[in-house]
Amino acid sequence: MSAPRRTPRRRPVTVVAALATAVALTGTLTAARAAPAPASGSGQPPREPVATGYGGAVASVSPDATQTGLDVLKHGGNAVDAAVATAAALGVVEPYSAGIGGGGFFVYYNARTHKVSTIDGRESGPAAMTTNWFIDPATGKPLSFTDAVNSGLSVGVPGTLKTWTTALDDWGTISLKKALQGGIDIASNGFVVDPTFNSFTAMNQARFSQIAPTAQLFLPNGAAPPVGSVFKNPDLANTYKLLAEEGPGLFYGGELGQEVANTSQHPPTIPNPTMNFRPGQLTAADIAGYTAPVQAPTHVDYKGLDVYSIAPPSSGGTTVGEALNILSNFDVDPGDQVQALHLYDEASKIAFADRNRWVGDANFNDVPTEQLTSKVYGKDRACLISPTSTLAAPVAPGNPFAPGGGTQCPSTAPTGTSYADTEGLSTTHLVTADKWGDVVSYTLTIEQTGGSAMTVPGRGFLLNNEMTDFDFTPLFPGVPDPNLPAAFKRPRSAMSPTIVLKDGRPFIAVGSPGGATIITTVLQILVNRLDLGMNLEQAIAAPRASQRNAASTFAEPAFLNLPEIPGLEALGEKFTLVPPSGTPTPEIGAATGLEFLPNGAVEAAAEPARRGGGAAAVVHPVR
Predict the structure, then answer these.
(1) What's residue 579's pLDDT?
(2) Which one, out of 348, 401, 513, 538, has a CA that is 20 to 30 A from the CA of 281?
(3) 536 and 547 Cβ atoms separated by less than 8 Å
(4) Residue 580: its pLDDT value, please?
């Protein structure tokens, strides 16, 4: 039985302490392209990347989703209510990135208790899952990543709907029915197809065409919906309506859960498909037994600020936290951009070495979360960094269980083991705040763009491919791999929804999609804002690079054009252009964030250009 609903709290507006007004951008990390204008006559909400004001705020990648959350705030809902409503709308307008067929991580600051809590809504493996889940029995070799994704084997128990109901029951003020209404309206009335939706559909056309309900829904007339057309999803509208009336039991223990299991076990392909969609073994019982536990966040102190994020099974909180602890041993000087970017890359490289070796589902592994996020371990790992040279990658992981971390500051870091980064890029992130001071930072996903490509027949939503986030075979010969498949286990994630407090009050909330680049995106935004003198808008727009313990650092084209590149290369750093990944331009992440200003106002910020530009809004805007 659901917990009784609470009436909305009517607390006075809190003036949130924050840093002094940020200085202008130094000029070395330039802002991205201007945001595209909304479609003429479309009736769409405006696509504004920045908004400042009072009474609450929302930022997401979609104007429709942001407006949905804003409407909830305007009608007295709190940040949790708005977050769930925004997420439900994203399940309609961003179906290749999010939806009730996937999962995610929810971070919440309660202004009444001054406490940060999180919800683990990560997908879990079925009871039948074994270590050899992605080993082809015919050959004894691992499946290719493509074969694994396009299969029922890739589908984990979805956690998104359970996340929503847990959040609403514990901290919300409205019913699931009210939270879903905005999504129902958008799915019924339709939304205008933008270039990103069109390109994401086109990049999936080959595999979408193999699944009958997916082709019927997302490939009308056999092709991606054209830009400027109106896309409707009546099946999803009806699914949301059923959930609104019958509650989450329809999914977790009811007929909808059975249909999800059936789709995984019997992929609904077209007659005589040219691709082999292997059957999975997900059952209705697996889905009925799923929980989305409320758990403690990770926490590090960075320059007197309290940085909270998500704990394992995500590696976001531990890896961002370790990198910040490493950086705290240096003067990250905005006056020396070459050295500042060098320190950012090196700290990320070292933290990723530890992430790959030590982080997995803590219910199945002895994950050293406390040690990885400790100042002592960060200081020990920091001694590997030289201001005059670059660490050869891959760097070996340290031993957080040993005194001194096992690093002992050798003059040359030992070589570690790299790995193939196959974590899906197409996730989405949203942030909300209300007039009482509550804040939510929420990252949700169905894994890679388009998930498993399998739409539940007649239900209008795609299923995830999250199980491919498990390692198919051990990464580290001779030592345990914390991210191998197992029954009921949750695969390691990189999602990093983050809330930063100053003097116990909210200062910044931020997060991003992007697979493993989520970690570096969030880290770089924090470094930009807290160390390099940028304001939040500039910190999000600035060109990005992503070093994940590899020989070369992936970078956006704009980053490779920075005047600091020759200086970084003189230190031994190597860069390579980030692959397009089906997006209109090669890009890393698509962040959204909030900053709470000294006068009590809040600034909401989204991307001005990446992923077509995001949308930020406040209840009572001011110039």
Answers:
(1) 74
(2) 513
(3) no
(4) 66
Q: What is the pLDDT of residue 585?
A: 64
CA atoms within 13 A on the CB side of 268: 20
Rounded (5°) CA angle 535-576-340:
35
What's the confidence (pLDDT) of residue 402?
Answer: 84
Number of structural domains found in the chain = 1
Tally of CB atoms within 10 A around 287: 23
Q: Is the peptide bond before 621 cis (omega within 30 degrees of 0)?
A: no
Q: pLDDT of 219-232, one tens digit each?
A: 999 999 999 999 99
The reported pLDDT for the residue numbered 477 is: 81
Residue 221, domain extent: 51-294+421-621
Does a structural domain hold residue 312?
no
Instruction: Read off the pLDDT of residues 245-254 as tens digits, 9 standing for 90 and up.
Output: 999 999 999 9
State the CATH number of the domain containing residue 508: 3.60.20.40
Question: Treating both helix axes as pointing N-terminal to C-terminal, what angle do 160-171 and 176-189 enclose, rounded to 10 degrees?
Answer: 140
CA separation for the pair 333, 121 (Å, rounded): 38
In a domain, 198, yes or no: yes
pLDDT at 478: 86
Catalytic residues: 427
pTM value is: 0.91
Residue 31 lies in a domain: no
| Residue tagged 């809504």 (tokens) | 121
The set of long-range contacts for 375-380, using a CB threshold of 8 Å and a minimum separation of 24, is 375/300, 375/301, 375/325, 375/328, 376/405, 377/322, 377/325, 377/405, 378/322, 378/324, 378/325, 378/326, 378/328, 378/329, 379/325, 379/329, 380/404, 380/405, 380/407, 380/409
Contacts of 19 (CB under 8 A, 6+ apart): 502, 507, 598
Cα distance between residue 349 and residue 397, in whole Å: 10
Residue 466, in any domain of the structure:
yes
CA distance 505 to 598: 11
* Spatial separation of the C-alpha atoms in residues 536 and 22, rounded to whole Å: 8
Nearest to 181 by CA among 230, 231, 226, 245: 245
Extract the residue ranges of the chain whose pLDDT is less than 70.
Answer: 1-43, 403-425, 580-585
What per-residue confidence (pLDDT) applies to 134? Answer: 97
User: How far lies 338's CA from each of 92, 420, 568, in Å?
Assistant: 42, 28, 6
Distance of CA 43 to the CA centre of its chain: 29
Phi, psi (rounded to 5 degrees) for 307? -105, 115
